[in-house]
Design a protein that fits this description.
- The complex is a heterodimer of chains A (248) and B (306).
- Chain A has 248 residues and is mainly beta.
- Chain A has helices spanning 75-80, 120-128, 148-154, 191-200; strands spanning 3-14, 19-25, 39-42, 54-57, 60-61, 65-71, 88-95, 106-112, 132-139, 158-162, 169-170, 184-188, 206-208, 224-227, 230-233, 240-242.
- Chain A folds into two domains: 3-95, Elongation Factor Tu (Ef-tu), domain 3; 106-245, Nucleotide-binding domain of ferredoxin-NADP reductase (FNR) module (Rossmann fold, 3-Layer(aba) Sandwich), CATH 3.40.50.
- Chain B is built from ten helices and 16 strands.
- Chain B has helices spanning 74-86, 102-112, 135-138, 141-154, 170-179, 218-232, 247-256, 266-269, 273-288, 292-295, and strands at 3-5, 8-10, 14-16, 38-40, 57-60, 63-66, 92-97, 118-124, 159-163, 184-187, 191-194, 196-197, 202-203, 209-213, 238-241, 258-263.
- In chain B, the strands form four sheets. In chain B, strands 3-4-7-8-9-10-15-16 form an eight-stranded parallel beta barrel, surrounded by six helices.
- In chain B, strand 5 and strand 6 form a beta hairpin.
- Chain B is globular, with a radius of gyration of 18 Å.
- In chain B, 55% of the residues are buried.
- The chains are: A mainly beta (248), B alpha/beta (306).
Chain lengths: 248, 306
């Protein structure tokens, strides 16, 4: 079942000028069964303007709390920054039917920018199951590593890439692919990065996709992604796709 | 709150609009779809349609643009793969039917004649997002007349026609449908609009233009329902659709002349909206001590506020 719930904002604070951490308190039990790769949609404002909900990955979960990271990109996310602790937001969850596979013993998780937030729940789950894993987190520069301290607290093995070399290894996060041949690859990030991951893994990686989305539960057909069998819905046939199945 | 329209009894007058509810299967995970008066399906065509490339949607003030392009598996796969799964849902289904030619409209309806769950057809002659068919009928009185007459001649089930608001005088088109034998009118489809990304200096939608829907279009829909009811209200029932997200919006449609309403875009941002509309109308009827049917077209009876 999918639920529309009223969530209490426990925390909504900037980590960098553009990236915020949002913690939502939900009715007990409503997060049970949420799988890595699934997402929620929340309405940044109860008014008609902006009209739609916005989709965010579950970056972390506890019994009754969901952690979300968001980047300020447009009017919706700008309004979201003004929501104060203690206020309530309407959320729709859990969304997404196809999630990250947990099979396989060795997993490489590639997160580009805010895309890392789409992988951290997976990292926790794989670690809990005793799998060998490495998270590679990439950004343009040290200043943009908004999720670094969150990643450190997560307690999973990770390495960091910056394009300008101002922190961690210099280069793109896809560099890590060269050293972990044969591992199951999961990726979330900008489209250019996902294209590179698709090519380097010959279509074998699992990608969490983003597309403009109105409903999140399969009825609007807005979030179309081209697959061999026609357009699929990111929210329903995904959001996780095998790279070889989709045109990027 | 039962209503009987074109010979069919509906458990209530709150339905969901085509293209905003799939075939009723997805939303069943959110609430019991059988509580709705009817589900109008996503448009069904004779052959499968891939739909338009993304980006297909864009947000606008109090509304949104869409250009999905009638993506659907075609009537054959609908009957084989989807229909068996909706048969157990205890409410009526109305098939939204689309064709590139008159023959295609007729073929799709004929293919659905034996499917008992489908109680009526809603001819889509008003989708602004496909190159051929649809709006070519909805914007031309001669082809519209021929289409409605042709379909009516060949099918037994009631035929509803969903009309375009993108014409100078919707009443002309409504009249043509009624005179060709349409059993009901569905007013309105989306309005043609566009949005430009100022940063990138180019259109937001892959097809440049799209159909505007959402709260922004409520007053336009209410105006058209009102005009058509004024001219033809004694001839056929009107189903109001456009901008409904709460029960008061629905009641505006009803008081303008709609005997039933469809909730559309609100399903996206407020998935429980149809139930809220239904409960809201019930509460209003109780408070006002009035029957639903008494409200249909009631705004025509008295002079405007002064």
């Amino acid at each position: 079942m999918i639920h529309e719930l009223s969530a209490r904002v426990v925390k909504n604070r900037p980590l960098t000028p553009r990236v915020y951490e949002l913690v939502l308190e939900l009715p007990p039990g409503s997060l049970r069964g949420v799988k890595p790769g699934q997402f929620l949609m929340l309405k940044p404002s109860p008014t008609f303007d902006p009209l739609g909900r916005r989709a965010f990955a579950f970056a972390d979960l506890t019994e009754s709390r969901a952690v979300v990271f968001y980047e300020v990109r447009g009017r919706g996310t700008k309004l979201l920054t003004r929501v104060k602790e203690g206020e309530r937001l309407s959320v729709l969850l859990p969304l997404g039917k196809r999630v990250f596979p947990l099979e396989g013993e060795r997993h490489l998780l590639l997160g580009g920018g805010i895309g890392l937030a789409g992988l951290t729940l997976l990292a926790k789950e794989l670690f809990k199951r005793g799998k060998e894993l490495l998270v590679a987190y990439g950004a343009r520069s040290k200043e943009e590593l908004a999720l670094l301290s969150f990643l450190e607290r997560l307690g999973v093995p990770f390495e960091v890439y910056t394009e300008d070399g101002s922190y961690g290894k210099r280069g793109l996060v896809t560099e890590a692919l060269k050293r972990f041949k044969g591992w199951t690859v999961h990726a979330c990030g900008p489209k250019g990065m996902l294209r590179a991951v698709k090519e380097a893994t010959k279509g074998e990686a699992y990608l969490s996709l983003e597309e403009r989305m109105a409903c999140g539960y399969g009825v609007c057909l807005g979030c179309a992604v081209k697959t061999a069998g026609g357009y699929g819905r990111v929210c329903y046939e995904g959001p996780v796709f095998k790279a070889g199945e989709v045109e990027l | 709150m039962k209503v009987t329209l074109f010979g069919v009894e509906f458990k209530n007058p709150v339905w969901v609009a085509s293209g905003t509810f799939g075939y009723g299967l997805e939303a069943n995970e959110l609430f019991p779809v059988e509580r709705l008066g009817a589900v109008v399906t996503k448009g069904i065509s004779l052959k499968p349609r891939e739909g338009n490339p993304p980006p297909r949607i864009a947000e606008t003030p109090c509304g949104m643009l869409n250009s999905i392009g009638l993506q659907n598996p075609g009537v054959e796969r609908f009957l084989n793969e989807i229909y068996p799964r909706i048969e157990s849902i205890d409410t009526h289904f109305i098939a939204n039917v689309f064709g590139e030619t008159q023959e295609e409209y007729e073929e799709v309806c004929l293919a659905l004649e034996q499917a008992d769950k489908i109680v009526a057809y809603e001819l889509n002659v008003s989708c602004p997002n496909v190159k051929k068919g649809g709006i070519a009928f909805g914007h031309d009185l001669t082809s519209l007349t021929r289409l409605v007459e042709g379909v009516k001649k060949r099918v037994k089930k009631p035929v509803l026609v969903k009309l375009s608001p993108n014409v100078t005088d919707p009443v002309e088109f409504a009249r043509a449908c009624v005179e060709s034998g349409a059993d009901a009118l569905v007013l309105i489809n989306t309005l043609v609009g566009m949005k430009i990304n100022v940063k990138l200096k180019r259109p937001e939608l892959a097809t440049v233009t799209g159909g505007l829907s959402g709260p922004a279009i409520l007053p336009i829909a209410v105006r058209i329902v009102y005009q058509v009811y004024e001219a033809l209200g004694d001839r056929v029932p009107i189903v109001g659709v456009g901008g409904i997200s709460g029960y008061e919006d629905a009641l505006e449609h009803v008081m303008a002349g709609a005997s039933a309403v469809q909730v559309g875009t609100a399903n996206f941002f407020d998935p429980l909206a149809p139930l809220k509309v239904l409960e809201g109308i019930k509460g209003y009827l109780e408070r006002e001590g009035v029957e639903f049917n008494r409200l249909v077209g009631i705004a025509h009876e008295s002079s405007p506020l002064r």
